[in-house]
Structure formats: C-alpha cells, structure tokens
Design a protein that fits this description.
Blueprint: H1 4-26, E1 41-45, E2 50-51, E3 56-64, E4 69-71, E5 74-83, E6 88-104, E7 116-118, E8 125-132, E9 138-148, E10 152-163, H2 190-193, H3 197-200, H4 213-218, E11 223-228, H5 238-251, E12 257-262, E13 264-266, E14 273-274, H6 276-282, E15 292-296, E16 302-307, H7 312-320
Parallel strand pairs: 2-10, 11-12
Antiparallel strand pairs: 1-3, 3-8, 4-7, 5-6, 5-9, 6-8, 9-10, 11-15, 13-14, 15-16
Length: 327
C-alpha cells in the first residue's frame, strides 16, 4: 500500500500526464501558465517523443502568468526519475543535468545576454539541452534554474514522459516510404499541398513540393523533410521553420532533395482531415505534434530529426556532411 507522500507524488505525475497528452494533441509547444500569475515563472515542455537509451534534445519553454516569456542566454536543467504510474519512486532519483541554450524562433531576436523577459512580439523561443540520455522509461521531472534579469534566481519544474522506444520515426530507423502530395497531385486542392495556398492562391516554394519521400527512397536520394502546416500551426513555428528549409533548398540542392509535407488535407472539415503523408509519420494514438524536420540518408535511414525549433547551423552541418549527389 502506498504511503501519503507516494500517493501525492503519483497524483502529480498523473496530472502532468494529462497536460502532456493535451499538449501533444494540440501540437502547441508553448507552456501554459499552471501556477500563480505575476512574477512566477512556469515551465512547459517544448519537445516530445523522448525515449530510453539515445542522446536527444530536450526543449523547455519558460513563461510568466502575464504572458511574457523568458528569453536569451542559458538556464540550468536537472532531471529526476519519478517512476511510473504503477510504481512511483519516492524520493525521486537523480538523473542527467545539462545547460539549456536559448533557441529563438527564426526571424525573432536572439541577443547575447542572460535570461530576460520579453513580450512574444519581441522575442519568442525555447531553451534546448543537447545530448540528454534517459536510462529508464516512465515519468521524469525537469528542474530549471534561471537567473532572470529583474527577477533574480528563478526555479521551476515540469514533467515529461520517457518511452521505451520512440513513437515517431527516429535516427537509426528506416524512413517510411510515403507518397506525400506534390505539385503533380491533381486529385488534391492546392491548400492540401501547402496550406499557404489558401491565402496566396497557389502553392508557394515549388522546390519543396516536387518530390515524394517514396521517390527519394527509391532513387537513393538523401532528403530533408519538414512536416508543418504554416497557416494552421498552433505554435506559430511552422511558417518560420518552413521558410528556413526553403532557404536551405536553394543553397544545398546538390546535397539532398527538400520536401514539405502539409499536415492538413482539409483543416476546415469537422473534424479536420489529415493528409495521409503526415499521418504516416506523425499520427500516433490519435494525437501528434508539429513541426518536425527529418534528415534521411541515401540509404533510407534517418540520420537525424528535430522537433518544433532547431538551430540552422546544426542542420547545415548535417547537410554538408552528406556527399554531393550525382546529377
């Protein structure tokens, strides 16, 4: 029989699981204030699909109850194992620790300063820790310490679930041979190929809508694939990161083919209808997160993947490590 402390900790874990499930369904990585308002910093997970045994990126957003965001600089993150719903651990067992670096939304400010407060219209991003390895499946607590200008040292925490195996395609695994929509898909409306067509009248960035993932795999071509819905993205990250991929397509056309997979075939239907190409990769247990970026090698194996936001220089380095393609 559980004691009172263990029961209390289990309740916290289950509440966190509910919040995580809601976040995965909405696709919005921004943290929602869950504590007191005012000058109290709340943390929320900005990355998902964490799993056992492999170094991975963990991203966390920091927000005040009045909507201001903590931005710039670095914060310290330490992880503690809480156990599972069936077997909570009390006290939590210490795990890895890392320094998380501010990762701005493309096109927003990125200043060389310590953590400070910003309105979302001024700066918007998350803090990302690299090479974090979890040794057990279950629930983990991320404790964040940030020295925020004007507030001083702030401590907050959030909870994440770690799986035995990744739910989405992951590095080292085979890419899914998907017939995503392209400019040649005559049976689909333009906005199903790219949601921006609903506003612009035509599919933008044709270089991103020429190849299917299946064709790239069949021809042995490396591919950089972004899954995003620029118009309907709850996080507002999709448009900026898709623009980054388009820019990379013009600079590294000799290294890979570049593909944009739109999430929605009909967003305005009730319920909205996903494109099969997006569902193949992202739809798990009725929910999904986006945007995602996958780099697939010429051998059809996933080289790397990035969730929500990523550093352009990381993606550039991965592309430059690929051999030049033959014409």
């Amino acid at each position: 029989m559980m004691d009172a402390v263990a029961r209390s900790r289990l309740s916290v874990v289950l509440v966190a699981l509910s919040a995580l499930a809601a976040a995965c369904t909405s696709g919005d990585p921004d943290p929602s204030p869950t504590g007191p308002t005012g000058d109290v910093v709340s943390a929320g997970m900005a990355s998902s699909d964490h799993y056992v045994g492999a170094p991975q990126r963990v991203a966390i957003g920091l927000q005040l109850g009045d909507g201001r965001l903590v931005t710039f600089g670095t914060v310290d993150v330490s992880f503690s194992y809480l156990g599972t719903a069936e077997a909570p651990v009390d006290p939590p067992e210490r795990g890895p620790a890392a320094v998380a670096v501010y990762l701005p939304t493309p096109g927003t400010a990125d200043e060389a300063s310590g953590p400070t407060l910003s309105l979302p219209s001024e700066a918007r991003g998350v803090y990302q820790a690299e090479d974090v390895t979890f040794d057990r499946a279950g629930f983990w607590q991320a404790d964040v310490t940030a020295d925020v200008e004007g507030l001083g040292a702030q401590r907050t925490s959030t909870t994440l679930e770690v799986l035995e195996d990744p739910a989405y395609p992951a590095p080292g695994g085979a890419a899914i041979e998907t017939e995503n929509l392209t400019l040649d898909s005559r049976d689909a409306p333009p906005e199903a190929i790219d949601s921006r067509a609903a506003n612009e009248g035509e599919v933008p960035d044709p270089e991103l809508h020429e190849w299917t993932i299946a064709r790239a795999l069949q021809e042995g071509r490396p591919a950089l694939v972004v899954f995003s819905t620029p118009v309907y993205c709850a996080s507002k990250f999709c448009g900026p990161v898709t623009d980054v991929v388009q820019d990379l397509a013009t600079r590294y056309e000799d290294r890979a083919v570049f593909i944009h997979v739109e999430i929605w075939r009909d967003y305005n239907d009730d319920p909205p209808v996903m494109n099969q190409g997006a569902a193949d990769w992202l739809l798990r247990n009725g929910g999904f997160t986006e945007p995602w970026l996958f780099l697939i090698g010429a051998d059809g194996i996933i080289v790397d993947r990035w969730a929500n936001l990523w550093r352009e220089d990381e993606v550039v380095a991965a592309l430059e490590a690929l051999p030049r393609m033959k014409a």
